[in-house]
Amino acid sequence: MRVGLRIALVFLFILSTCRISYAGNNTLREIVLDVHETPFETQVIKEDTMEDNVEEGEVQEIDITPQKTLKEKLHDVFNLQVSDNDHVEYLLDNILTKKFEKGPLDNIGVWGLWRGGLGETFVKGDNHTNISYDILESRLHGTFRNQKTSFVITTRYVPQKEFNFMQNLFSDTFIRHRFNQHAVLTIGNTRTHTGEEGSWSELLIPFYSRSQISRQFGNIRKLGVRLSGETKYVDYDIAGNSSGTYFTSFFPGAEFCGWVNFKPLANTNGKYGTLKIGGGITAGRRHFNYNNIGAYISYKYKKVKIDFECANGDGYNGRMGADNIHARGYYTTLYYDLTKKLQLVARFDDFTPNCHDSAHHTREYSTGFNWFIKGQALKLMVNYIFREDSIAGNSHKIMIGTQIVL
Fold first, then answer.
1. How many structural domains compose the chain?
2. pTM for this entry
């Protein structure tokens, strides 16, 4: 297994298609891994070794855990077995996060992300190779002494032709306060919950690229105030935002974004699988009024999962820009876990970019696999996409990507 892992690591770096990230804070979709650290142990202090201020027979807590060297921590990471592929685990959290004994901060850490893609596209008898490095980010994050308040400052350095350097500089930049497990308040620049998949981190999507409705309507960060949380039967996310994106304008208008997911089988302890049914709306004004309504359903039973999402946008303000046009689409994805480390995925994806011209539509038929070498922390993705476009014509594409979360 170790030989195979070393070969996989070399192969991933040769491909130069990496997502690299360093220790980050918990979110509703992410957990931070505690890498084999043992808790403080309790020791009874005998009478002949007691200090003057310790009563006889009193139990005193002292830290007798030896501090691990960097080599030992890296060895723990190398031998770590990860079986939960539904969350992101930061493997080097203990190494790249500094804890403080005193002061307002409990800890502070760094994080980085580099994401690229290697693709071969075949269209109309021609083919071309595309290698892109579209994300280069760094993050500073910290948690305050009360363990309830945290902050994140994320900056990106890959230029985008649509924006200048400063407009594209800040990504996730916010302060967050967790009242309890059911209520979290976030103020700052964050990814909106426009659509279910549109709100997911790139680290959790089943394919290298998102569905068409997620690319068109969602996957966008906006400045605002956000209240979100989880209960046993309901997850919710409600936000009031500026409709401006990428800091191109101060406040062109206001936007409301709300999404609710219901979990009707939450009380069955997984006996009948897990079911999630949700929906929401994003509505606002940015030089024109727009609204986007979506619905989502997901069911997972043992090794099989299937989800379906649809969206109707009467105007939209998403990752691909704002447009006063009526568009709609839907997708369905099938997941099958061959093993804990190997997952097959298939997707049918239909999109109508202009409902007033229904003759123009695009469809994508995608299939591939995800190899979870160490869960989502070290993953290889291979995708094949057949795209039907009533105007541009048909095309075939092979994508290879990797993901490393450190």
1. 1
2. 0.79
